[in-house]
Design a protein that fits this description.
The protein is α+β, with helices and mostly antiparallel strands and about 450 residues long. The protein folds into 3 domains: about 110 residues, Trigger factor ribosome-binding domain (Alpha-Beta Plaits); about 100 residues, Chitinase A, domain 3, CATH 3.10.50; about 170 residues, Trigger factor, domain 2 (Orthogonal Bundle), CATH 1.10.3120. The protein is built from 14 helices and 11 strands. Strands 6, 7, 8, 9 and 10 form a 5-stranded antiparallel sheet that branches. It has a 4-stranded antiparallel sheet with strand order 1-2-4-3. The radius of gyration is 34 Å and the shape is elongated.
Length: about 450
């Protein structure tokens, strides 16, 4: 057997594999002998079938199987030994006049080679790193929400602007039939508000969904429609009132503080504000970190220039998935995934050049941390270590889940690396201003 590689250019190569009879004949002969021992052919005792008959019946198919096995093994071994950094998988070149009766077989494979490039972690156009703060306004609003959530609810005869109303929204044509509780203060516009104020149990309100709520996401919750359907939704609905209540805000006292924090860590309004601020800014930090990683990704893709073996990758995409694509479909798929591929290469380069890696123990610890936080949401604050180990073991046996957690851990490590090795423009702002600026 002989394997050679010819470089077409910096990003494309062709591998040629030459196979002769000596490379596979011994294995084929052994298989034919095994067939002969086991074959049940009328007119012959078991194990006494003439080898010529066995060879005539099975020889070619066994030979083809063995050549294909040998070809795949040899190609994989060659790629590993030569440490070729390829994109996609080798693509076999189809030979129209290929002859399985020949003395020698030659197979050719096209390769797409990964480009060589450097990553500049000090670009001129810096990424903005946001520091999101919890404003006094936000803290006040959150305390009011807590007081309402833990307040005393009592029925009233007619709705006021501060009332809560429970009823059913219905539009048969749009398949809307949802019982919801809404706050009158969330209703938008004087005309709509006038319909609600003074309404009583049993009243049926005729409403338009367009501009009904100050926040369209509250309309989504009220009607039970999909997120993509709620924006711009303009249909008529009826709202049949079943209950009208008012909420008397809970007192900011020790009884409320102990309900919120059973460990007794909060005993004053000032301490409550500090705790809310700490928790809110911890969540804001997670969102700011995700936005920062996204911005760094965009920045690196924009500022790291290299060519790709585009034609090869488009050809490879035609047969890479479960469904074969047409040439045009493969081009469209390539255009859609090119930016992601570029960042994968940049990410791999950064990790290789800076020895960033994860081992299995790190992955297990990360999985356990994720599981611990999930369990805490359901009230299990102190799970046993053995329980965490068992659950993590089961989760990581699922290849899809393991890959997802591994990807998250890699992103976490890379973000830590970027924070230490890149310069940013810093900006401090409220959560509301962050949303406006980043997601405008």
């Amino acid at each position: 057997m002989n394997i050679t590689k010819q470089n077409v250019d910096a990003l494309n190569a062709v591998i040629k594999v030459d196979i002769v009879a000596e490379d596979y004949q011994a294995t084929v002969t052994k298989q034919l002998e095994d067939y002969r021992k086991k074959a049940n052919i009328p007119g012959f005792r078991k194990g006494q079938v003439p080898m010529g008959m066995v060879k005539k019946q099975y020889g070619k198919s066994i030979m083809i199987d063995e050549v294909n096995k040998l070809l795949q093994q040899s190609l994989n071994k060659y790629l590993a030994e030569e440490k070729l950094d390829i994109l996609g998988n080798p693509l076999p070149r189809v030979e129209d006049n290929f002859n399985w009766d020949a003395e020698k077989f030659s197979f050719e494979f096209e390769l797409g080679l990964a480009p060589e490039f450097d990553v500049n972690l000090k670009p001129k156009n810096k990424v903005t790193q946001y520091n999101i703060i919890a404003t006094d306004e936000l803290l006040t609003k959150e305390i009011e929400n807590i007081q309402t959530r833990y307040g005393k609810i009592s029925p009233i005869d007619a709705a006021t602007e501060e009332a809560n109303i429970t009823g059913a929204f219905v539009n048969e044509a749009e398949d809307i039939n949802k019982k919801s509780t809404i706050s009158v203060k969330d209703i938008k516009g004087k005309t709509n508000l006038k319909k609600f104020v003074g309404a009583k149990v049993g009243d049926v309100l005729e409403l338009k969904t367009k501009s009904l709520f100050e926040d369209e996401h509250k309309l989504q919750d009220a009607l039970g429609v999909a997120h993509e359907a709620v924006h711009g939704l303009d249909v008529a609905v009826t709202f049949t009132i079943e209950e009208v209540t008012k909420t008397e805000a809970a007192e900011l006292d020790k009884e409320l503080f102990d309900k919120l924090f059973a460990d007794g860590s909060v005993s004053t309004v000032s301490e409550l504000k500090d705790k809310i601020k700490e928790d809110a800014e911890k969540q804001f930090q997670q969102q700011a970190d995700q936005q920062l990683l996204n911005a760094i990704t965009e920045n690196l893709v924009e500022n790291t220039k290299f060519e790709l073996p585009t034609e090869f990758l488009q050809k490879w995409l035609q047969t890479a998935g479960e469904k074969q694509l047409t040439a045009d479909e493969a081009v469209a798929e390539y255009n859609k995934s090119e930016k992601g591929l570029r960042y994968q290469l940049i990410e791999g380069k950064v990790m290789k050049d800076n020895d960033i890696k994860i081992d299995y123990k790190e992955l297990v610890d990360y999985a356990k941390g994720f599981i611990r936080s999930q369990m805490a949401q359901f009230g299990n604050m102190n799970p046993e270590e053995k329980e965490l180990d068992d659950i993590a073991g089961r989760v990581l046996q699922n290849q899809e889940e393991a890959q997802k957690l591994q990807s998250q851990l890699i992103s976490q490590k890379l973000l830590g690396f970027y924070k230490e090795n890149m310069s940013f423009d810093s900006k401090e702002l409220s959560y509301e201003d962050f949303i406006k600026e980043v997601y405008k």
